[in-house]
Fold each of these.
Amino acid sequence: MTKNSLALIRSDLNQFVGEKIKLKANSGRQRIIEKEGILEQTYPNLFVIKLNSEKQSQKRISFTYSDILTKTVELVICSQGAEKKFSCSQSKEA
């Protein structure tokens, strides 16, 4: 795992800022989180998803790009009525 591969994941994910996202995250001990939200922002070391909630308060969840690389987090991009599993060129090689 190099900084270059994480930078590629970040640049690939950066083009989907503002898009609806479905995420599936392994939280350990056989706990899997499945949520929907909007990719709010990408930062140098992590990305933030604003979760859809019925409550008044806005909840956000963040993950690192290495979570995608290690397949701890799987993302599905929902844009224009179509769903597409997020994959970048570098994560296929890892």
Note: The radius of gyration is 13 Å.
Amino acid sequence: MRRSKFSPTQIATILKAFDTGKTVVEITREYGVSSASFYKWRSKYAGMNAKELKRLKQLEDENRKLKQMYATLALDHQMAKEIIEKKL
């Protein structure tokens, strides 16, 4: 999956700009973000500050790595079971 070119603090700044009264069109021009990305961030990160947003990103990365590790171990386990069954 492609990583965002915006850091959690930049995302929080963009969302705060909307809260202070800027329109979506102004924000998309100023920060160079698409309106679809803005609305996605707004629905996902509404009400979070930069620190909470950064922690959420870290947890999502850790979760992705753990899922990948689990998938690898599950495949190894399945292969080992098949090898044992063939020997019996």
Note: The chain has four helices and no strands.
Amino acid sequence: MDKFITLVLSILHVSKTLVLTVLLAGLVLISASTPVWAAQLDARINPNDDTSPFKISYLKTVFIEYADGGNLFEALRGNEWTVSGTADSSDPGVQKLIDELNKTILSDGSQARVSDLNVTYDFHLKARNINTSVDYRVILEGDLTNYIITKDSQKTLIDLGWRGLSADSEIVIDGVEINIPINILKAQEPDAYTFFAGIDAEDILSVPLINADFILQQPMTNWHFLFDPTGVSVDAGTFGLDESISGFVVSSWTMGESSLREGRQVERVFEAEIMSDQIYVVRSVQSADAASLSTIGFGALDIIDGVEIAGVSPTSPEGYVTTSTGKFPVTIMYGMAGMAALGGIGFFIYSSRSLKNVTQGQQGIDPSRLIGYQTSASAGGYQTNRGEAQLRDDSDYQKTRSVYDDTQQQSLPSTQVETTPQTPPPQTSTPTMVDQACGCEADSGDPDYACDCAMQGACICSADCKCNTDVCKEAVSQL
């Protein structure tokens, strides 16, 4: 009992150690991974209101690699810090950012404007043995106005050309520059900054963080379109409305999938080498942008003066039923589903019938074609009754005989005489009295002495004995 308890405790200890090892490895991988997302836009447009909320996040990761150590490694060794903060539209830096965003929207041909804005920023540097990562994150949450072009009782035209929310100049909030990545390194790591100054690495780190040009460049006709024709009340909260939204259509467009229709979405990587006491690599990584736009009502896309718009109506057109991009008839979808179901049922019916048609009963060789054959040999006055079953005819013998029979025969040296005769095919009839006669000679020298097979072991046969009985063949094989 004590040994059993000891064994159980040992197993539990090993299992606990294994679990802790796996958890530790997972934590190392998680801590070593960094986000590489780019611009992510989420907006919900209410055509029945003058303002609608939006949120957009800008994220980027910069890697500084020094595989062979060096002075840059020494300048960053063991460093880790975070710079973060928030600000609203009362901050001069936020007001400047609003002006920059509206200037970009105007240059894109849109009449919409950003009226209010809250800014959250977070920059984190962590130095490791082979590289240093710097994570940049800026989140803008605000209100959008002036997006309604025209409105009547039948349809409302909504401006969608404001999607490229970008700013090119420096934006300083509470003394922290949040738009140009190199500036935070210059302020927090002046010794490391000297390695980037005046070279391609500085150009890579000078690309503005607040940039959503790709979201505007991707035509909304390539975005996925979904709508809820029932206007479920659970969506009302996302628009800041009550249950009165029930019964209205809610349309949504999403961008970010990598497909043949939308194009291949890949992360954007910019890389440069620093030639100093060692060769260092600076890499800026951003994934493909993503966006989601929603509006109350059924939205039909169009273009006016090069600006994408959506014509929004309270209900969807009669007969229009779809759940994805394009006017794919619902009857075809249901028909394809029905055909798939019928195909599955047919397959199971066919399989069931095939199983029932499988031949039952005796399988293999017909027992009537087999015959018993005695394989035992006598020794002294004792003989066993061993035997085996073989086919009545040996027409298939050449197909099944061992190839080693011929190989062994051919491999014998020319000077070696094989004294073991080949075993003849099994007899298919009972031996006659003639077969039982043995013309063997004895050692007594008496030529008239002849042994009979019935004498069993008392018979001493010569090598020329032709008797086919087992006792004689055994005696001959021993000579």
Note: The longest strand covers residues 51-65.
Amino acid sequence: MKVKRFIGQNMESTLQRVREEMGRNAVILNQRRIRPGSGLMKLFKKPVYEIVAATDEMGLGEGIPIKDTDDGYVALEEKLDRLKATMDTIANSITLADKDREIPEMLAPYHSAMEKSEVDPEVIHMVMEGVKNKINLNTTYDQEYIYYRFKQEISSYFKRVETIKLSDGKPAVAVFVGPTGVGKTTTLAKLAAHYSVIMKKKVGVMTCDTYRIAAVEQLKTYSEIMDVPIRVIYQKSDIEEAMQQYKDMDLVLVDTAGSSYRDKMKLMELNKMLKALGDQQLFLVISASTNYRNVMEILSSYSFLKNYKVLITKVDENVSNGIILNIAVKSGKPLSYITTGQSVPDDIEKVDGERIASLILSDR
């Protein structure tokens, strides 16, 4: 692993040196603005910018912070989490299996379908009870009607769907937060393309993800293609300047740096940045391929966010769709969009409860 310190007259030129010398996969370990002071800094009459960057010379990683690759405890902790999640699921399943022991024959295929889709046992029980309360178990129904009842019951958990809302007279600000690797940057690009190219709205983009040079470059490329302005936020004061530049926009989309949901310091930094942005529509981005235990930890870690919508990515990569229903029930928050591929702007859509119910019940 190669670590190097860069000093320059401004942040853009210093980042350019990092790109040239260390490549696009370099990871920013630290960045700061240094005022003229004692020691060597007396040589500079104006403030300078310092960036400490690292790159994996052996090519074993791609944009991965040192502390993540070298910390064996993280891997051990994740294994223990998976083991605990398995034990919790088994214990919960046994308890709820007792409650659902006598499943009516006509309802059994749908109970089985939800299990195959990895719907949480507690949620399955809620759905089963909801259907039982709407039918007469002593009456014979055709399967079409039973399917309709299950579909409606599951859909009822998706009544609160909230997407981006544009404002009159001032730009709407939509901010995307969430763990590393869930697809925030690509999702933002899809929405930018939808609103600017398809809906013909004036859109501005801001990115606070200066830890990953590749992410900034990716957004800049999309912005050039869509002819959408982009501002890179290095410090709090940059937000005010960017918002002044975007005062005539219909919509401002803000990308934030991903971090481990266990990194309390990064979450505190995120909270400060969100306060600096003022009025905003907040979207917590979660990948559908995340295991259920980790989803629950993510929801707990981001509980300091009071008003947010959930945006679920990588549904196309998930082998079961029960996680979407689990998130809707356990988060208690409105859902917004799901993404179903990498294509910009096509592979994003508003959450449709009936469609998700159909996906969950497809294995009956």
Note: The longest strand covers residues 27-34.
